[in-house]
Design brief:
- Helix content is 31%, strand content 25%.
- It has a five-stranded mixed β-sheet, sandwiched between helices. It has a five-stranded mixed β-sheet with strand order 7-6-8-5-9, with helices on both faces.
- The chain starts with 6 loop residues before the first strand and ends with a helix.
- The protein has seven helices and ten strands.
- By secondary structure, it is α/β, with parallel strands linked by helices.
- It is globular.
- Strand 1, helix 1 and strand 2 form a beta-alpha-beta unit.
């Protein structure tokens, strides 16, 4: 993944935060932020896109690896070095607009099949609340599969958030009008972070942390957020 001094920032395709462009430069608000960090510190670094489960595994076991954008939780706390918060989302359950599903609490979702991304925090969150794999949790390898399974009736609900669901649905070839957000999960971790593997040099991690703080303080972060209409 990386040579002795090469630094790799791993991430997933998650528009509008991270957008993988196979034939042109990658884009997205958080990609722009990470590029600003690389420029600020003059790092020899690359941004590499891959499925989340693979990125998550690599970021736990490989030196000189940073990962974004990752939700921070108690079960992840000791697995990474946490650089800093880079964005905040709000979690929701979504359904097909034509379905009459009423959810007033997360327990109300237990009779339904809930789609999540494999190894995402949503999966462990639901398991801790008593949801069971292949009973009412269905882990998907990609966002396209996540939404396609909802459209095809293989799942009843999707665990998503207020920012990413629209671009994901459109990319999956689904009319956003056919999807509705039906329940906000207010106790779900909502702060997204840049983090580093435990084996990455703590001095480097500190430098990246300070650079992130500088970018926030001098207005560059706010400019990126406004550019991507993520206020």
């Amino acid at each position: 993944m990386s040579s002795a001094n090469k630094i790799t920032f791993v991430t997933e395709d998650l528009p509008p935060l991270q957008i993988e462009n196979p034939h042109t430069a990658h884009s997205g608000a958080m990609v722009q932020l990470v590029n600003e960090l690389i420029k600020e510190l003059k790092l020899d670094a690359d941004i590499v896109f891959m499925p989340w489960a693979r990125a998550y595994n690599i970021a736990q076991n490989t030196e000189n690896i940073f990962i974004f954008s990752m939700l921070r939780s108690n079960d992840r706390e000791s697995l990474f070095q946490w650089v800093g918060k880079i964005y905040t989302i709000r979690a929701h359950l979504a359904s097909l607009a034509k379905k009459e599903i009423t959810i007033n609490s997360i327990d109300d979702a237990k009779p339904y099949k809930v789609g999540v991304i494999r190894n995402a925090l949503a999966q462990s969150y639901l398991q801790q609340l008593g949801f069971k794999a292949n009973k009412n949790i269905y882990a998907n390898p990609s966002y396209k599969a996540l939404w396609s399974n909802l459209l095809n009736g293989n799942t009843d609900l999707v665990f998503t958030n207020n920012i990413i669901w629209g671009p994901q649905v459109a990319e999956a070839g689904i009319d956003p009008k056919d999807i509705k957000l039906i329940f906000e999960i207010k106790d779900y971790a909502s702060d997204m972070y840049l983090a580093a593997s435990k084996t990455t040099d703590p001095i480097l991690v500190k430098k990246v942390t300070l650079a992130l703080e500088k970018i926030k303080a001098d207005g560059r972060y706010d400019k990126i957020i406004k550019q991507w209409q993520l206020l």
